[in-house]
Amino acid sequence: MYDKTVRRRRAVLAVLVVLSLLLLTAYFGESSGGRLHGLQRDFLTVVSPIQDGANKALKPVRDLFGWVGDTFSAKGQRDQLRREIDKLRPRLVKAEEEARLSRQLVALDHLNQLGVSDYHPVTATVIGKTPNLWYSTVTINTGAPAGVKVNDPVVNSEGLVGKVVAVESDGAQVDLITDSAMAVSARIGTSRATGIVQPKVGEPNDLLLQYLPEGTPVNKGEYVVTSGSVGGADDSLYPPGLPIGQVTSVNEESAYESVNVRPFADLHNLDVVEVLTSGAGSQPANLTRLISTLPPGRQSGTSAQGEQLASTGVGG
Predict the structure, then answer these.
(1) In the chain, where are the structural domains located?
(2) Which is nearest to 156 in space by CA: 199, 195, 78, 104?
(3) pTM above 0.70, yes or no
(4) DSSP E strands: which ranges in 20-129?
(5) Domain at 120-312: CATH code
(6) What is the pLDDT of residue 282?
(7) 105-116 burial code (b ≥16 CB/10 A, e <16)
(8) 56-65, 245-254, 263-272: lowest mean pLDDT where?
(9) Which H or E element spans position 283?
(10) At 221, is the secondary structure helix, strand, or coil?
């Protein structure tokens, strides 16, 4: 029974193949106006509207399947890109951090040309900040073994940051120039008149240059730098000419002019700083020892003495 069915199917297939060959031969052998060509045209006339309708009806389905395929493909590409981004992100962050630290170190090297050749700059990283709005104190990771001492000046690539107030074997504490205990002898860049820079009360981001002699010419936008003089044994001995800030406004309500100053250093985002250390026998160390031996009355009269210290190339 099975063999008969197979033989019958094969016979039908053979007949269809032979019939197809005969029709093709006749079709290609007749002219374009022949019966077979006419039959083809009639068939297409009937079938074409059905085909167009079917195409239009099935187009949303084809579009849907195409959209689904494109969506899965896009999701696959998105996931691949996300994996690549996740791999590259740590490298980018590391490269940006290295570039930022490199720029700061280059700027610190440039700052070291401003009269600090008698000091030995020690690079340190800020590892702690006071947890409040004022950020008046920071902790650095370099201490006594590196030669850091109390009252050593601290700078960064932008200018003066503060001074060392406590030293341990593995770190040191630095009071920033916005700390209420800080006072820095300073001058306007275009003048030799000396005043004192202190934090502005109620303004944690601003400084006040006070006690300038009456008539001292001061203009908005001028630079304020360390003067090269000190007010007492507890003062830090800063090299003259270190950038402190820029004049934002001038107050002329008293015999002594006061000047509002915006510090150059971004004290809220300190990362790398330099401590200007001075070894035993160096000029800064000798001058510091000299100042500490003067009577209090002699230490407070700093204007003339400051000019003398400034002329030596070192001061505070």
Answers:
(1) 120-312
(2) 104
(3) no
(4) 120-129
(5) 2.40.10.340
(6) 66
(7) eeebeebbebbb
(8) 56-65
(9) helix 283-293
(10) coil
